[in-house]
Amino acid sequence: MKALNGCVLLFASKTAQIAPQIREALEENGIGLEYTSNVQKAMDYVMDEHPCLVFFDAETDDVRALELCKKLKKIKEEWAFQTCFLIDDNKNFEEQWTWFNNGVDEFAYRDTNPMLIVQRVKNILRPYRKQSLNVPKKGFVIDRERYMVFVNAKEITLPRKEFELLMLLSSRPEKVFTREDIFRLVWGTRLVVGDRTIDVHIRKIREKIGEGYIVTVKGVGYKFVEKQ
Length: 228
Hints:
The protein is α/β, with parallel strands linked by helices. It has two domains: 5-131, Response regulator (Rossmann fold); 158-224, Arc Repressor Mutant, subunit A. Helix content is 43%, strand content 22%. It has eight helices and eleven strands. The chain has helices at 19-28, 39-49, 63-75, 93-101, 114-131, 160-171, 179-187, 195-209; strands spanning 5-12, 32-36, 51-57, 82-87, 106-109, 140-143, 148-151, 154-156, 177-178, 214-217, 221-224. The strands form three sheets. The protein has a five-stranded parallel β-sheet with strand order 2-1-3-4-5, sandwiched between helices. Strands 6-7-8 form a three-stranded antiparallel β-sheet, with no helix packed on it. The chain has a three-stranded antiparallel β-sheet with strand order 9-11-10. Strand 4, helix 4 and strand 5 form a beta-alpha-beta unit. Helix 1 crosses helix 5. The model has no long low-confidence stretch (mean pLDDT 84).
């Protein structure tokens, strides 16, 4: 049986009600995920990444969601990931039973506060995220695929932009990245940010991972230093 990874697939219809909020919250908590309404893209992600959870925000008569469920059911014996489906209520027993027969493991309700759903997702992911990476007791570890950072075996939670900035700097230790590099590679050209934005992100990262990893090169930019 293949090992599962601590990531999630969010399959949402175009009229998805709370999946966008769940997506944003999970990304802010550094959870690796794919968000799509395309069945083939969803299957590609499942086959490549082996997520431990597939989450649906679609109507119960959505033919694409049903198609994906049937495809997922066929591969569940190879690796036993979980599937969760959002519904409006539990009045239609036959409808829910149909989805159970097609591979759905559990249901959640759309009128539940999205943050409670996010916490449920995080609880499902937690054991997989911890066992999927061999973390040394000392030192700095960054798992780029799962948006996870460990310092001395302690997991550090970083919002998405902080993680991307740290990932950029640590990708080439000792290389000095100019502010222009950081603007272009982290924020892209669509958004205009100032020096203060970068400084604030750097300060928050240092507060979380400790001093000494990110060094300021005055008048130029920043670099990442590997501690011995």
